[in-house]
């Protein structure tokens, strides 16, 4: 079965600095990879996804992620962090060859300090 | 973009009562909907996959008689928590796959259930 690991519970960065939120995955077939953001007491907001094609995926709010097949990683990045980026970030994977459900990582809390 | 709504957004009930949560796809048809629960400071855990017109598929450890799922139409799935207990208190989130689009799930805003 597919699985996702987010090795960091918490990431702290200063406003204006680049940020990286790490994600590694495990699937038996081809992965569909996603990043979502969650604000307190809210549902998930879609940021970006990798299905096929260019390994560098650009998404909402200036975020991007790079699919690295050899390292089975899909790290989320942003060149310059904003205080408003502070939230909970989830990486997710779907193995379409198996079924359609999505598996989530444990989440990483990003705090951007002014 | 595709919008998924959930109702109610918050519900407080007494122990032993049943609570129904609705998940609707507002501007698309969804052949498949998913139900997740999220405990505080934890990730989303898939509870069940709901296919229109057929029985839901439950994940291991999820009691199907306690969490009743009905997907009666292409735009509506309901989750009923029967005989709720305080340990059922959680954040319940649904998501939906647009018909004919297999790579994208759209999430509802979630329902906060508190059982007293």
How many helices of chain B does DSSP assign? 0
Would you identify the regions of chain B where 5 or more consecutive residues have pLDDT less than 50? none
Number of strands of chain B: 11
Poorly predicted runs of chain A = none
Q: How many strands of chain A?
A: 12
Beta-strand share of residues of chain B: over 45%
Q: Based on the structure, what is the oligomeric state of the protein chains?
A: heterodimer
Overall pLDDT of chain B: 90
Measured distance between first and last alpha carbons of chain B: 37 Å
Classification by helices and strands of chain B: mainly beta
Question: What is the global morphology of chain B?
Answer: globular
Q: Which structural class do you get from the secondary structure elements of chain A?
A: mainly beta
Helix content of chain B: under 10%
* N-to-C CA distance of chain A: 41 Å
Largest sheet descriptor of chain A: 6 strands, mixed
Proportion of β residues of chain A?
over 45%
What is the ordering of alpha helices and beta strands of chain A?
A: EEEEEEEEEEEE
Radius of gyration of chain A: 14 Å
Considering residues with a beta carbon less than 8 A from a beta carbon on another chain, report the largest interface and each chain's count. Answer: A-B, 22 and 23 residues
């Amino acid at each position: 079965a597919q699985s996702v690991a987010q090795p960091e519970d918490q990431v702290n960065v200063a406003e204006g600095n680049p940020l990286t939120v790490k994600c590694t995955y495990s699937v038996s077939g081809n992965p569909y990879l996603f990043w979502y953001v969650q604000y307190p007491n809210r549902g998930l907001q879609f940021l970006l996804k990798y299905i096929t094609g260019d390994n560098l995926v650009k998404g909402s709010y200036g975020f991007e992620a790079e699919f690295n097949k050899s390292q089975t990683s899909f790290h989320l990045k942003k060149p310059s962090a904003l205080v408003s980026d502070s939230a909970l970030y989830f990486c997710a994977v779907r193995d379409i060859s198996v079924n359609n459900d999505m598996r989530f990582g444990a989440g990483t809390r990003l705090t951007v300090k002014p | 973009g595709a919008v998924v709504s959930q109702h109610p957004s918050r519900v407080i009930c007494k122990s032993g009562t049943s609570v129904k949560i609705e998940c609707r796809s507002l501007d698309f048809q969804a052949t498949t909907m998913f139900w997740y629960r999220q405990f505080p400071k934890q990730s989303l855990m898939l509870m069940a996959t709901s296919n229109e017109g057929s029985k839901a598929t439950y994940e291991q450890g999820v009691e199907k008689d306690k969490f009743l799922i009905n997907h009666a139409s292409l735009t509506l799935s309901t989750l009923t928590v029967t005989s709720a207990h305080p340990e059922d208190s959680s954040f319940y989130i649904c998501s939906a796959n647009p018909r004919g689009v297999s790579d994208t799930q759209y999430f509802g805003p979630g329902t906060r259930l508190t059982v007293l």
